[in-house]
Amino acid sequence: MRLKLFIHCATLLLGLAMPCQALADGIIMPGMEWLDTQSRPINAHGGGVMYHDGVYYWYGERKSDFTYRSPGVGWDCYRTEAGGVSCYSSRDLCNWTFEGIVLEPDTVDTHSDIHPTMVIERPKVIYNDATGKFVMWMHIDNHNYGKAMAGVAVSDSPTGKFRFLEAIHPNEQISRDMTLFKDDDNKAYLIYSSEDNATLHIALLSSDYLKPTQVYTRNFPNQFREAPALFKRHGKYYLVTSGCTGWDPNEADLAIADNIMGPYTSLGNPCRGDDADKTFYGQSTFVIPIAGTDQYVMMFDRWNKHDLISSRYIWLPIEFDHDTPSIPWRNMWSPSSMLNAQCTIHNDNPTAKTTF
Ligand code: DGJ
User: Fold this and answer.
1) Where are the domains of the chain?
2) pLDDT in tens, 257-305
3) All residues at 6 or more sequence positions from 169 whose CB lies less than 8 Å from its CB, including other chains
4) Ligand 1 test: best mutation among 149, 176, 191, most atoms within 8 Å of CB?
C-alpha cells in the first residue's frame, strides 16, 4: 500500500515538474499530457501507427478546440469540428515530430464527406508494396453518426498529402469504428462495426487496398463490439474491442483466432490492475508491432467527452504468458528496451551501438 502511494506521489510530482508524457529520457507515462517535439500537445486521437523505412508514423483524428453537443441528437453526442488527420513521426516511440495535417478537411464544399461539419475518426494507414501508395481508411460520419461510412484516401508519401477518394458502405453495410490490418502475405483487411454496431465485419480489401471485396465475415453477432484493434503473433490473430457506450469507458475484450476472418474466441478482459474493468478509463484503438521483434504496444484513448481535444493517450506494453496476452497498468515505462531488441536483431555488428 505504502509503495503504491509512493509511486502515485512520484508520478504526480514528475507530472507537475514536467507536464508531458514522453520525458527526455524516453519514459512514457500513460494518461498524462503528451507533448510533441515542439512542446505542443499531440493531437492524434483514435489513431494508428505505421512503421515504414525505420520510422514510426502516428496518424490520428485532429480535434478542434471547441467541443459541443450535437444539437437535436438524443444521446450523449459530443463532437468537435472535423480537423482532418494529423501525422507525427518518431524513431523511438517517445519523441514525436509533427508532420502536418496529412488529410485536410474540405472547408469549401459543404456537401463533402470530409467537411468540418462531418465526423472523421479512427484513421489508419498501410503501405501497398505493389502500387507504392500509402492507403488511409477512416470512419466517416455526419453530425449524429447516422451516415456510418468508411472513407478511403491515398498518398505517394507517408506524410501526405493524402487525396480523399470516397466514402462508401462496404458491401452495402454500415461501417462505424474501424481498423486496418495488413497481413504477412500483403493481403489487407478492413475491420468495422456494422449492422448498427451489433456485429463486427472483417472484409478483405482489393489488391490495391482501395475497395472492399465481397469476401467478408460477420463476427461477434449481436454483441455490440467497437474500437477494434488487431494484431498477429506466432500465427494467431488477436482482436481487442470495447463495448458500445459512446465516449464512456467499459470493459475491453480480447479474442483469438487461427484465421484473420475468424471465428474468434473470447479470452476475456486483457487489462490488469486498478480500473481494469473500465479499460483504465480508456478505449482501444490500435496495437503497434515493434518492428523486428516479438513485442507489441497497446494504444488506448482516454476520452474527455466535454473537451475532446484534451483526451489523453494510454500506451502500454502487452505481456504474454505463452499464447495468452495481458495488459497490466504501468504508471510509467520505457520503450527503449523493446527498440534495443530490434537493434540486436537487425544489426550486422552486434557490438556497434547504433539506433536503427
Ligand atoms: C465511440 C467510438 O469508439 C468513438 O470513436 C466515437 O465514435 C464515439 N463513440 C462517439 O460517441
Assistant:
1) 2-355
2) 999 999 999 999 999 999 999 999 999 999 999 999 999 999 999 999 9
3) 148, 149, 150, 175
4) 176
Task: Quote the pLDDT of residue 9.
Answer: 42
DSSP state of 72: T
Q: Is residue 331 helix, strand or coil?
A: coil
How many angstroms separate the CA atoms of 288 and 158, rounded?
17
CA 233/CA 25 separation, integer angstroms: 29
Q: Taken in order 216, 218, 220, 226, is the CA torsion positive or negative?
A: positive
Q: What tens digit of pLDDT does each residue of 80-125 get?
A: 999 999 999 999 999 999 999 999 999 999 999 999 999 999 999 9
Quote the ligand 1 centre to 170 CA distance (angstroms): 19
Ligand 1 pocket, residues with Cβ under 6 angstroms: 46, 121-122, 177, 226-227, 246-247, 283
C-alpha cell at 341: 531488441
Strand, coil or helix: what is 337? helix
| Residue numbers in the chain where pLDDT is lower than 50 | 1-21, 23-24, 342-356
CA–CA gap between residue 140 and residue 119 (Å, rounded) = 6
* pLDDT recorded at residue 125: 99
CA distance 146 to 34: 32
Looking at residue 3, what is its pLDDT? 44
C-alpha 87, offset from chain centre: 12
What nine digits make up the cell of 315? 500506451
DSSP letter at 7 equals H
For the chain, what's the residue count?
356
Give the Cα-Cα-Cα angle 149, 154, 160 (nearest 5 degrees): 120
Q: What is the number of alpha carbons within 13 Å of residue 205 lying toward its C-beta? A: 26
> Would you give the distance in Å from CA 321 to the centre of its chain?
24
Name the grid cell of 47.
489513431
Of the residues 119, 192, 193, 226, which should be mutated to test ligand 1's pocket, given the most ligand atoms within 8 Å of the CB? 226
CB 28 within 8 A of CB 94: yes
Question: What topology does CATH give the domain 2-355?
Answer: Tachylectin-2; Chain A (2.115.10)
Atom 10, ligand 1: which residue's CA is nearest?
246
